[in-house]
TrEMBL record:
Coiled-coil segments on the chain, per record: none
Organism the protein comes from: Luethyella okanaganae
Record flagged with keyword Cytoplasm: no
EC number in record: 1.-.-.-
Cross-referenced PANTHER family: NAD(P)H NITROREDUCTASE YDJA-RELATED (PTHR43821)
Keywords: Flavoprotein, FMN, NAD, NADP, Oxidoreductase
Named cofactor requirement(s): FMN
Top-level taxon of the source organism: Bacteria
Location of the Nitroreductase domain: 15-166
EC supergroup of this enzyme: oxidoreductase
Name of protein: Putative NAD(P)H nitroreductase
Family listed: Belongs to the nitroreductase family.
Amino acid sequence: MSASSPPESALYEAILSRRSYSRVTDAAPKRSELLHLIAAAGRIADHGSLSPWRLIALRGKARERLGSALAKAARLNGDDASSLAAKPLRAPLLLAVVASYVPSEKVPRWEQEAVTSGVAHMLSLLLDDAGWGVIWRTGPHTRAKAVAKMHGLGKDEELLGWLYVGGMPDRTRSSHTKKVTPSAFLTTLR
Ligand SMILES: Cc1cc2nc3c(=O)[nH]c(=O)nc-3n(C[C@H](O)[C@H](O)[C@H](O)COP(=O)(O)O)c2cc1C
């Protein structure tokens, strides 16, 4: 590849074909596979090398406890509460994405949040490339007290949502991927 020819690397193709999967199957990556992928995702550019992030895996009953915390945060009862509480059960594995801010005069919190977000995007891509279905989900209660408490977050920690991870459903991945018109996103200051 030269500067003038179109890039065709495996990385370029993996990024171009990635997509979110709102429905996934019950299969999920094991801890050992997650650690392997996190070792790569954690290589994100990180101002000051603060590593201001961590991930929390929620499987099985932990997803139910998250559902209860969401319903509590929303102050819902009855069927509405049950329906919200069931949302974390849509995937066998949730990875809570946590910005774990490090005191720094040089690197403000927004930069540390950008690093955490970068890790989540990188990990999503790596999981997709490894054949797992992933979607990053948030919602109005992502930063509610009950939800932070359920995850055991510290006072300098904030959730950026969850990567819902499961088996990739059996269908052509190309059917969904959105096209990007690059020229619409690049201007030049003169
Ligand atoms: C920070 C963030 C939060 C998101 N929250 C949600 C969400 O709450 N619900 C949802 O369905 N998708 C959520 N998404 C996924 C986007 O909807 C999805 O990436 C978008 O529709 C584009 O689809 P694609 O990833 O397949 O290209 C989120 C993505 C990001 C990056």
